[in-house]
Amino acid sequence: MDSVLRALVIYAFLLMLFRIAGKRTVSQMTTFDFVLLLVVAEATQQGLLGDDFSVTNAILTISALIGIDVAMSFVKRASPRVDRIVEGLPLVIVEDGQPKMDRMKRSRVDIGDVLTAARELQGLERLDQIKYAVLERSGGISIIPKQGG
């Protein structure tokens, strides 16, 4: 039972931590972000397993984490409010070519990130060609080009 409680505490902590840390997809990770993720994984493993490194405890802990995640998906589906708290909402960060700097700063997205997405997704070169740029719940940036732009 100790493993299940540890899993619940670690799951809740990681959920809160990554929600605070902000949106970022794996494709946007830097080398340092990846190394940091590995370090977090190792520290999490130590916290989850404690002194019991048995296969049985590992299976119980992994099962508890997956079970908690599945339960959370049902809770999010049943409660839009919980879903918004956990996953967030899409956020318009550029409107009619004008960056919303307060939103971008709060989300830790810069104009370079928006322009990269604009080039990669729509072949656009300048902000004034963008009708909307939306920071999605997944951390990706969607670009809606201006007509004829």
Compact overview of the structure:
With 149 residues, this protein is α+β, with helices and mostly antiparallel strands.
Instruction: Count all strands and give the number.
Output: 4
Number of helices: 6
Q: Assess the beta-strand content as a share of residues.
A: 5-15%
How much helicity do the residues have? 55-70%
Query: Which word captures the global form?
Result: elongated
Radius of gyration: 19 Å
Kindly give the count of domains: 2
Low-confidence spans = none
Mean of all residue-level pLDDT scores: 85
Give the ordered list of helices and strands: HHHHEEHHEE
| Through-space gap between termini | 60 Å
Structural class: alpha+beta
> Strands of the largest sheet, in order across it?
2-1-3-4
Largest sheet: 4 strands, antiparallel
Q: Mind explaining what this structure looks like?
A:
With 149 residues, the chain is of the alpha+beta class. It has two domains: 2-87; 91-145, 2-Layer Sandwich (CRO Repressor), CATH 3.30.240.20. The protein contains six helices and four strands, in the order H-H-H-H-E-E-H-H-E-E. The protein has a four-stranded antiparallel sheet. A hairpin with a 2-residue loop joins strand 1 and strand 2. The longest helix is centred in the middle third of the chain and has 24 residues, at 55-78.
